[in-house]
Design brief:
By secondary structure, the protein is mainly alpha-helical. 48% of the residues are buried. It has a single domain, classed as Amino acid/polyamine transporter I, CATH 1.20.1740.10. Helix 2 runs parallel beside helix 12, helix 4 packs antiparallel against helix 12 and helix 9 runs antiparallel to helix 13. The chain is built from 16 helices and no strands. It is found in: Membrane.
Length: 464
């Protein structure tokens, strides 16, 4: 669910909303508005290019966490669970895109973003919920910002863990904690996050794309060499660990923030849904790769597998250690790209100020403080596996599963809920799954974090 390219796509604000209640009803004799015919995209993406965009969005650093997810499920449950989670995520993305396209016809808008679609579902839904439209849109805007900030925290822990893994091999006398490496990353992160124009980050993104291919190749080589027999690994892990599996898979696979920008910029958006369609083809590849990496990564490294499988690469081979450092560099560059997304919303808020005095200084301070906050959170909870699980449980299960089911139900409530109200039943099941992932995943992750934090405190008190 999360990629190092999301910031590039989500930063495109697309078409601004001018929804109004007055345009809700379409005159029967009037020809239905076709939003696809009114889209004016300067550089539209081809169908194949759109598939590549979705693949880049979903096949980022999250795929490296899949072996750790399988550790919490077992081989059999992991395969079934990955397929199940993939189908659910694909369907919820379909709900968002279909709802957005239907509302565009009524609102006579060429396209809408994710937050705009959520708000419009209420605005064009039942009369009693229409006044909530703007509030929902604003709420989703803030939620997306918090989601990306939480992803930044994961990135910092990833960078720190990768550097510690290498430094512990070549400088064993310096026993520096992951928390200290998080602090050491503060100044470099502050500096790169002062870059305000996205075009200046393009070279960093290009370098990151090349490096992640190298890292992925090296990781897969060590993953498939001398695989142990299946009997050495659990087929079904303890049920109490399944929430960690589910929330990690959702975190890795869910790309709800990038879907609408990709669909909005297609030359032939009618090819996004349907069979085969851009969405189905992309998610088939994603689900397959996630299942393969998770299965064989856990088979190779077993219960010793860490939050990112790159951390399990051999310590006595420089190529493996180099891959760890390259991955840390990839995440460092990706941090700046992801940082661009929450800053876009903050910049919109700053533009509402009546005076631009000290605007440059305010920007520098906000960027610096935001980086400090993410580093502080990473220092407090440096367990990569638990942080990934918590972020997936809280943010991506909500934005990627719960909200699509809710907005689709609200929009169709007084229109067409299908035979026997199957839309309500189906979406209700998705809501229940998302709540289970939210509550159970958050609980298990938080309990693990508390135990981890308490253990660190006890260790410090013993040393003193």
């Amino acid at each position: 669910m999360f990629s190092d390219q999301r910031a590039n796509l989500t930063s495109n604000v697309g078409f601004q909303s001018t929804l109004s209640i007055d345009s809700k009803d379409i005159v029967g004799a009037e020809k239905a508005y076709n939003p696809f015919e009114h889209r004016q995209v300067e550089h539209p993406n081809s169908t194949f290019g759109s598939i590549l965009h979705l693949l880049k969005a979903c096949l980022g650093s999250g795929i490296l966490a899949m072996p750790a997810a399988f550790k919490n499920s077992g081989l059999v449950v992991g395969v079934i669970g990955t397929l199940f989670a993939g189908l659910i995520c694909t369907h919820t993305v379909h709900l968002v895109v279909k709802t957005s396209q239907d509302i565009c016809v009524i609102a006579k808008k060429p396209s809408m973003g994710f937050a705009e679609t959520c708000g419009a579902a209420f605005t064009y839904g039942p009369k009693r919920v229409r006044p909530w439209g703007e509030f929902v849109k604003t709420l989703i805007d803030y939620s997306m910002t918090l989601t990306y900030i939480s992803v930044l925290c994961v990135y910092i822990v990833f960078i720190a863990s990768s550097f510690k893994g290498v430094m512990d091999v070549y400088l064993p006398h310096y026993d520096i904690s992951v928390r200290m490496y998080c602090v050491m990353a503060l100044i470099p992160l502050i500096l790169i996050c002062q870059i305000r124009n996205l075009k200046y980050l393009v070279p960093f993104s290009a370098i990151a794309n090349i490096l992640i291919i190298i890292v992925f190749g090296v990781t897969m080589y060590y993953t498939f060499v001398d695989l142990p027999p299946l009997s050495e690994r659990e087929a079904v892990a303890s049920v109490t660990q399944w929430p960690l599996f589910l929330s990690t898979v959702i975190f890795a696979m869910e790309g709800i923030g990038v879907v609408m920008p990709v669909e909005n910029e297609m030359a032939k958006p009618e090819h996004f849904l349907g069979c085969p369609g851009v969405l189905n083809v992309s998610m088939f590849i994603v689900i397959t790769l996630y299942g393969v990496v998770g299965f064989f990564g856990y088979l190779q490294f077993g219960d010793a597998v860490q939050g990112s499988v790159t951390l399990n690469l051999p310590q006595d081979q420089w190529i493996a250690q180099g891959a760890k450092l390259l991955m840390a560099l990839v995440i460092y560059f990706s941090y700046a790209l992801q940082f661009y997304v929450p800053m876009e919303m903050i910049k919109r808020l700053l533009q509402k100020r009546s005076s631009n005095k000290f605007g440059n200084l305010i920007q520098v301070m906000i960027r610096t403080v935001l980086v400090i906050i993410t580093v502080a959170c990473a220092v407090a909870f440096p367990n990569l596996e638990l942080v990934i699980s918590l972020v997936g449980a809280i943010f991506f299960s909500t934005l990627g599963l719960l909200l699509p089911a809710v907005i689709n139900t609200v929009y169709l409530w007084d229109k067409d809920l299908g035979r026997f109200n199957y839309v309500v039943i189906k979406n209700g099941i998705i809501v229940i799954i998302s709540i289970i992932a939210l509550v159970s995943g958050s609980y298990v992750s938080i309990v693990g974090m508390i135990e981890d934090f308490s253990g660190h405190e006890n260790h410090n008190s013993t040393l003193t």
